């Protein structure tokens, strides 16, 4: 929670596309979670806008449109054939459950199981859909999370997705909520993009006093310099 509070102090007023105070419907999140795979959000958002303009940002439409039409609409997001197939797969899974309401009425365990059984959906995408679209308390683990917390000297002994997720869920069990998990993950993404990059910008970092990686870079000294700026 100390790490969360430091991040929240810096990023609370910033906007990230799936934060709880950003108006995104569940379809936007589901489709966006697939479109953003292996690309930047700006390209995924352009593909989302194209689907919306064409009246195709809809589960039934995605389940019935010819794959070539979906590919043309989402081309800007990259790998359109692969992502069109994945969009059709999630649409089929939702339709097979009886529609979106019935899909989201499944228990946490069954919902995650069905998502993971869907072509092209791994743990990170499944948990993003669970957390931001279905409103379930599933902590999303991504590359930003691993990088930031390893630099802080924190994290599980193992490096698998499940081990990282248990680390956060157990560490936050007394204060866990959907909104906290949403904000925490969103803050980590913003932090990873702005400061804790592959080459970090350490001095502006709100976590600097607690970062073992930054201390190793400075020999334990507060130099007042920005390491690895850029």
Question: Can you give me a brief rundown of this structure?
Answer:
The chain has 230 residues and is mainly alpha-helical.
How far apart lie the N and C ends?
29 Å
Total of helices? 13
Shape: globular
Can you tell me the CATH class of the largest domain? Mainly Alpha
Helix proportion range: 55-70%
Q: Return residue spans where pLDDT drops below 50 for at least 5 consecutive residues.
A: 222-230
* CATH domain topology of the largest domain: Endonuclease III, domain 1
What radius of gyration results from the CA coordinates? 19 Å
Structural class, from secondary structure content?
mainly alpha
CATH architecture of the largest domain: Orthogonal Bundle
Beta-strand fraction estimate: under 5%
Instruction: State mean pLDDT (0 to 100 scale).
Output: 91
Largest sheet: none
**Total count of strands:** 0
Query: Which superfamily, in CATH terms, is the homologous superfamily of the largest domain?
Result: Hypothetical protein, domain 2
N-to-C series of helices and strands = HHHHHHHHHHHHH
Integer tally of domains: 2
